[in-house]
Write a structure and sequence with these properties.
Elements (H helix, E strand, L loop, with lengths): L1 E8 L5 H10 L5 E8 L11 E3 L5 H15 L5 E6 L2 E3 L4 H9 L4 E4 L11 E7 L1 H7 L9 E2 L5 E2 L4 H9 L5 E3 L13 E3 L3 E3 L10 H4 L7 H27 L5 H4 L8 H6 L1
Parallel strand pairs: 1-2, 1-4, 2-3, 6-10
Antiparallel strand pairs: 4-7, 5-12, 6-7, 8-9, 11-12
Length: 267
């Protein structure tokens, strides 16, 4: 059994799209568990379990994972994913091979976001057993020095620290894009999953913001406003293409020689 834990926030725009891609690219029986914050309850019946939990991201993932761990069997998988993440290829077989070979956690690592070292909750797969044993969360806290020299933290840093402390191996899914619309958003990872990015908040990230960090505050705000407007236009355009059935993300990895999850499992 595959157990997906997903979050949607004040918008139902991605619910049917995500459920469709999960159905298409999950080769085993699955259940989808969701926190649907500020969303019409008419959507709740589309999930195995859904509620309006009303807490932060780490708390909501922790809550769903707790429910899943109570219901899961030893051979099950636990998948954390954002509401704007779409599986785009068969991932279950290769991930199971990695777990069987001694790598009990597989997750996106966004090195392109100024050197993020940690697994990202937009798509991370592990076992309920490991999640219970780790006793970790998707909170921030532990810091690292990014590629611009600034010390930063982000959600997922606690999990990264706990994996390191306990000596637990994990397999990073890296960006497969050959063609980038944006340096961080609109990415394919490991050849198996597409993450749109920032679908439920203002679309600006460290890679956008850090180059202007030394500007006076009024200029920095003006620069950020312009970046957000451009990213919002891109996001809306690409979302419409997805809704029209256009799998444009195939174009992003055309002619890619980046390793995918299948080659990692084979290696």
């Amino acid at each position: 059994m595959i157990h997906y834990a997903t979050l949607h926030f004040r918008s139902d725009a991605w619910i049917d799209l995500q459920l469709d891609y999960i159905e298409r690219h999950t080769s085993e029986e699955f259940r989808v568990w969701a926190c649907l914050d500020g969303i019409d309850r008419g959507h709740f019946g589309k999930f195995h379990h859904a509620e309006d939990h009303g807490e932060g991201i780490p708390e909501e993932y922790g809550h769903l994972a707790g429910l899943i761990c109570e219901a899961a069997e030893p051979g099950d998988l636990l998948v954390f994913l954002h509401g704007d993440t779409l599986p785009i290829a068969d991932w279950v077989g290769p991930v199971r091979e990695l777990i069987a070979a001694g790598t009990p956690l597989v997750g996106i690592q966004r090195d392109e976001n100024l050197g993020e070292p940690h697994p990202h909750a937009c798509f991370t797969v592990t076992t309920p057993e490991l999640w219970r044993e780790l006793g970790s969360s998707w909170g921030d806290g532990p810091e690292w020095v990014g590629t611009t020299g600034r010390t930063v933290t982000d959600l997922g840093a606690l999990l990264w620290r706990d994996l390191e402390r306990q000596g637990i191996r994990w397999e990073p899914l890296l960006r497969s894009n050959v063609h980038d619309i944006h340096p961080v958003w609109f990415g394919v990872y490991g050849g198996i999953v597409y993450h749109h990015g920032a679908a439920f908040r203002r679309p600006i990230c460290r890679a956008d913001a850090d180059p202007g960090v030394g500007l006076p505050l009024p200029l920095r705000r003006l620069r950020h406003y312009g970046i957000i407007r451009v990213n919002e236009r891109r996001s809306r355009r690409l979302y419409r293409r997805l809704c029209d059935g256009d799998e444009f993300f195939r174009e992003l990895i055309a002619d890619s020689t980046a390793p995918d999850i299948a080659s990692a499992a084979a290696g």
